[in-house]
Design a protein that fits this description.
The structure is a single chain. By secondary structure, the chain is an alpha+beta fold. The protein folds into four domains: 2-102, Arc Repressor Mutant, subunit A (Orthogonal Bundle), CATH 1.10.10.10; 108-227, Rossmann fold, CATH 3.40.50; 231-426, Serine Threonine Protein Phosphatase 5, Tetratricopeptide repeat (Alpha Horseshoe); 449-524, no CATH class. The chain is 54% helix and 14% strand. It contains 20 helices and 13 strands. The protein has a five-stranded antiparallel β-sheet, with no helix packed on it. It is globular. Residues 1-98 bind DNA. This is Winged helix family transcriptional regulator. TPR repeats lie at residues 361-394.
Length: 525
């Protein structure tokens, strides 16, 4: 990575980081950034920038170059009158003002250290090996994009500032035992989250696997619960999803999120009446509905049973969380998702929270979903735009709201806006081509090659399960049958054209005997 003043850029200029803020750049913006930064301090004419764009197969005009430059200035927060990064030479071109510096290492999510008491060489090396094993055990329990680091010495305040959580250790060798103490802190303000003492026989007669695994499990549990209790920043995830994200163990995107279910189940067993853990469990069940279909591990019967359990948990605990806005908005989100006739209750809960002193950015997305569900698309788009206005470029919150906005445009039949905004999303988040892009094609469009390859690998039964997943996770939340069909109809038509199978949604019977027969034949295959 290269640093320019307070911004650290990756080598391809796809992203830049300023503290906790992540900025993403489109293809056009990256092309100009690469050309400008490679020629820092030198004047670059519009013709030179146009040549750079042409060499990258990006067809641009003088006017569009100026437009991209203006977008860059907005993202860099650069003042045209007092520029820090990019100066304009009127009538001539542009100059990148700053020379690059080597960027600091990426910020760690958990930093093991500082470590005290490792002064005796006879046990320093084995203990450090134990801490390395601990680092690996913690890393295996959280999302792969969350870095776990370890210091090589007592550490400094600067180390602590370069992580989100610090795990401090002190050791004392005494009477054939090593006594240890760990302190988990929130690095930003050194708040103590947990303290644990332990003792090990010395010298180590065997690997300390059980100690390492137990400590790692406790540390991750403390972090998850700390995040759930304190909510999240608006540029990470929306507030109504904070319990859900915590219950999924920091947004894991694979089967490892099941470990968080074991953790919450244990807490529930200790105190079944605790509303926080009950709603966290409901949120974990919500995650199983979202992820299990992608792992081939959810049928209609199990989905229905899971949604009934979510409903019971939410309704039973709603009267007990009168003064807890986070839990109430989480209940509203869950009741909206399971779509079991609670729309008026959900709307009243959201209105109640909206009127309280709570971050509006966290409520705007759910308000937008409720308006879109009733077909009030202009109002829905305004709420989504409000949320995007306060979102930082490149944040999870921005991506989350952008996808909800695309869904509303699809349901509304506003195809021109949908195509324009989807293309902008794909430029900022290329990975969404393989996820969002799969579901928003027109009925007569062929599948992209990567989409076709994925669906071909599933077989006809699996392909129909994907259409059903789209219906249950998105389409069914719209009240109008016409709006529901717009969500799944294009994808279902593409599937029918390629695979010869017909999806019949649960909200209606087959339109004809032949349609019913096709659906039955597929379910039996």
């Amino acid at each position: 990575m290269k640093r320019f003043l307070d911004l650290a850029f990756d080598d391809e200029m796809k992203i830049a980081k300023r503290g906790e803020e992540t900025i993403r750049f489109s293809k056009s913006e990256r092309i100009l950034l690469l050309a400008l930064t490679k020629n820092h301090g030198r004047l670059m004419s519009r013709d030179a920038l146009l040549n750079a764009a042409s060499a990258a197969d990006d067809d641009r005009s003088d006017r569009s170059i100026d437009y991209v430059i203006n977008r860059l200035r907005q993202k860099l927060k650069d003042d045209v009158k007092s520029p820090r990064f990019l100066a304009t030479r009127y009538g001539e071109g542009y100059v990148w003002l700053v020379a690059p510096q080597e960027a600091e290492p990426d910020k760690a999510f958990v930093l093991i250290g500082p470590c005290y008491g490792l002064n005796d060489e006879t046990f320093e090396r084995p203990v450090r090996e134990l801490l390395q094993d601990l680092r690996q055990a913690i890393a295996s329990r959280i999302s792969p994009d969350r870095k776990v680091s370890i210091t090589t010495g007592p550490g400094t305040n600067g180390d602590r500032l370069n992580c989100e959580y610090s795990l401090e250790f002190a050791f004392l060798q005494e009477a054939g035992r090593i006594h240890g103490r760990s302190i988990l802190r929130l690095a930003s303000n050194t708040q103590i989250i947990s303290i644990r003492k332990f003792a090990l026989d010395w010298p180590f007669a065997e690997p300390q696997e059980s100690t390492v695994e137990g400590l790692a499990a406790e540390i991750v549990e403390c972090i998850v619960l700390h995040k759930s209790e304190n909510g999240t920043q608006r540029n990470e995830i929306p507030l109504e999803l904070s319990m859900h994200e915590a219950s999924r163990l920091l947004a894991l995107a694979d089967t490892a999120w099941l470990k968080s279910g074991e953790m919450i189940a244990k807490k529930r067993a200790e105190d079944p009446e605790d509303s926080k853990y009950a709603i966290m469990w409901a949120s974990h069940l919500y995650a199983t509905i979202l992820f299990a279909p992608l792992l081939g591990d959810l049928n209609d019967e199990r989905r229905a049973e899971t949604e009934l359990e979510i409903e019971a948990l939410c309704l039973n605990h709603l009267p007990r969380v009168q003064g807890h806005a986070i839990l109430r908005i989480c209940i509203a989100k869950l009741l909206f998702f399971i779509d079991r006739g609670h729309m008026e209750l959900v709307e009243s809960l959201v209105s109640e929270v909206y009127e309280q002193e709570i971050s509006f950015s966290s409520v705007y997305p759910l308000l937008g979903q409720l308006k879109a569900a009733r077909g009030h698309f202009d109002e829905a788009i305004r709420y989504f735009d409000h949320a995007l206005h306060v979102a930082e470029t490149g944040s999870k919150f921005e991506l989350y709201v952008s996808v909800l906005r695309l869904k509303a445009l699809l349901a509304a039949g506003r195809r021109q806006e949908l195509d324009r905004d989807a293309q902008a999303l794909f430029e900022l988040y290329p990975e969404t081509i393989d996820t969002v892009g799969l579901f928003i094609g027109k009925p007569d469009d062929p599948f992209r090659p990567q989409h076709a390859a994925y669906l071909d690998s599933l077989g006809t039964r699996g392909v129909l399960a994907v259409v059903s997943y789209l219906y249950h996770s998105s389409a069914r939340h719209f009240i109008s049958p016409e709006h529901r069909e717009r969500i799944y109809g294009g994808f279902a038509a593409q599937v029918e054209k390629r695979y010869g199978v017909i999806f019949v949604p649960p909200d209606r019977h087959a339109a004809s005997p032949s349609e019913a027969e096709d659906a039955q034949n597929l379910s039996d295959s």
